[in-house]
Amino acid sequence: MPLAYLIGIDVGTSGTKTLLADADGRIAARATVDYPLHAPRPAWAEQDAEDWWNAAVEGIRRVLNEASVRPEDVAGIGVTGQMHSSVLLDAAGRVVRPPILWCDGRTTAECRQIEADVGGRARLIELTGNPALEGFTAPKLVWLRNHERASYDRIKTVMLPKDYIRYRLTGEIATDVSDAAGTLLYDVRRREWSSPVVESLGLDPAWLPRVAESAEVVGAVTQAAAELTGLNAGTPVVAGGADNTCGAIGAGVVRPGQALVSIGSSGVVFVPTEEPRLHPDGIVHTFVHSVPDTWYVMGVTLAAGLSLRWVRDELGHLEQGAARLLDADAYDLLSAQAAQAPAGSAGLYFLPYLTGERTPHADSSARGVWFGLSTSHKRAHLIRSVFEGITYSLRDALDAIRAMGVDVAEVRLVGGGARSTFWHQLTADVLGVAAARMQMDEGPGFGALLLAGVGSGVFNDIFEATERTVRLRDSVQPDAAAARDYAERFAFYRSLYPALKQSFAEVARWQV
Q1: CA 215 to CA 237: how far, in whole Å?
Q2: In DSSP terms, which residues pair with 158 in a beta bridge?
Q3: Beta carbons of 47 and 34 less than 8 angstroms apart
Q4: Which terminal residue of the chain has fewer beta carbons within 10 Å of its beta carbon, N or C?
């Protein structure tokens, strides 16, 4: 019997990553194809859906060629991608306008309009599990009605980025439970479109595609797509999932009690639950997992890795120069510098609110702060305080989740934080829980190909898929003394935002 291979396609904001792996999870080939992000106005973010498709086609061809895999040996394809971004099709299946992305900030007025139309913020959270936020899909539709009526009137289908790639591969229109949950049009508890919300906003329910479970096969590669990609016509394609859920699956975070801590530009704390848990104030997101009969709660800190990148770019010229000379990574050198300072950075605190904050402070006016700075502080203290401040912000999100009665026994660390041994131990100490790193951190695309393996019968279910393919690299326990010390320091960190909240609002008037 020929060896089965699986393909996962991740439609990211900076590029599309395609993975090819065998049934034991061994990566045979990977390809990333970049594309631009367009900002027609300040705070706007759009992309060309055709760029996504061309990147997926090129990525598929490259991984098949690199691994010399026969197309008939590909058992299935899974898709994932950025949540919330709007892909709108007309009656002929053409894209109406460039998709408005998850990071677009033009819809503040529409968010308030949605809350008013539905009957208030509390009512919206009751119906969808979440408040209205600028990144979600529904505010984009209302914005189009308010500002681009000609485009709005052409809409016949609303889908998400990964759904568009699947549509181009198969010709079938569908979405999945995890991406539907991020539209603000979905009842996360009932796992169905929310008729009260759709009706209150005056949207056409016919626009909303059928919703499948993430591992369900919803179509097969068409002959036209096969000719472009090198795949076999008829290859099954599953519904796939949102990037957060597929990232969690790729790290084996599929059961309650586990947590995913992801440190990219933003920081995410993702915890599966066996039932939907709603935060009354909406400071923690409640969405649907790509695992059947499972939900998740999620806290987000907006400038995690972004804060460290700012330090590298603006203050890390020494590390950047040394990295070029030594053929090293500037982030590794920053981490080594931070490790030279004592725990707690000699009383120096950094608030990582460079672009505002989301969990637990939904405050777009919040800004970064160094607090406690004195002449005794050296460069290493400043750098370490940034690592600590980012990790405190993750603890803030985790504690908001714990306050909902959600237990966390272990975190799995992925992204930039997982590459640093120093940050790995710091995460365990600050969060007060064991922190594991993955032997292979391939991101959401790996979770997408595992979903394809379930749908195509390579695995019986997602639990078998993760047990067979996801392997831990190492795990550290919190150092007891350090954890006690950081718990005390974290309490002080938490006192800083309330003390500065009004000042943030005032200084925002002078910033552009």
Answers
A1: 9
A2: 88
A3: no
A4: N
Residue holding tokens 């400038």? 303
Q: Is the peptide bond before 360 cis (omega within 30 degrees of 0)?
A: yes
CA distance 96 to 150: 10
Which residues are CB-neighbours of 455 under 8 A, at least 6 positions away?
Answer: 76, 78, 215, 216, 217, 236, 238, 239
- Find which of 175-184, 262-271, 320-329, 402-411 is predicted with most confidence, using mean pLDDT: 175-184
Paired tokens of 440: 């292979």
Q: Look-up: residue for tokens 């949540």?
A: 83
Torsion over CA: 195, 197, 200, 203 (sign): negative
Short-list 290, 264, 270, CA closest to 78: 290
Q: If we measure between CA atoms, which residue out of 437, 429, 428, 422 comes closest to residue 338?
A: 422
Say if residue 145 is exposed, middle or buried (CB neighbours under 10 Å; 0-12, 13-18, 19+).
Answer: middle
For residue 484 the two structure tokens come to: 């006690």
Confidence (pLDDT) at 482: 97
> If pLDDT is split at 50, 70 and 90, which confidence band does 309 have?
very high
Task: Provide the mean pLDDT of the chain.
Answer: 95
Amino acid letter for position 367: R
pLDDT at 1 over 90: no
E strand or H helix that includes residue 438: strand 434-438
Q: Average pLDDT in the 245-262 region?
A: 95
pLDDT tens digits, one per residue of 37-63: 999 988 899 999 999 999 999 999 999
The C-alpha angle 338, 496, 419, rounded to 5 degrees, equals: 30
E strand or H helix that includes residue 242: strand 241-242
Give me the DSSP letters along 459-500.
SSSHHHHHHHH--EEEEEPPPHHHHHHHHHHHHHHHHHHHHH
What's the sign of the alpha-carbon dihedral 292, 296, 302, 305? negative
Report the catalytic residues.
Answer: 243
Q: Give the list of residues 6+ apart from residue 146 with CB closer than 8 angstroms, or none.
A: 110
What average pLDDT score do residues 171-180 get?
A: 98
What mean pLDDT do residues 449-462 have?
97
Residue spans of beta strands (DSSP E) within 23-98: 27-34, 74-81, 87-89
**Is the distance from CB of 88 to CB of 138 less than 8 angstroms?**
no
CA separation for the pair 228, 206 (Å, rounded): 31
Confirm if 376 and 347 have CB atoms less than 8 A apart.
no
What is the distance between the alpha carbons of residues 438 and 491, in angstroms, rounded to a whole number? Answer: 30
Predicted TM-score of the model (pTM)? 0.92
- What's the pLDDT tens digit per position in 93-132? 999 999 999 988 899 999 999 999 999 999 999 999 999 9
Q: Can you tell me the distance from the alpha carbon of 335 to that of 90, in angstroms, rounded to the nearest whole number?
A: 50
Residue 130 · residue 282 · CB < 8 Å? yes
Mean pLDDT of 384-405: 96
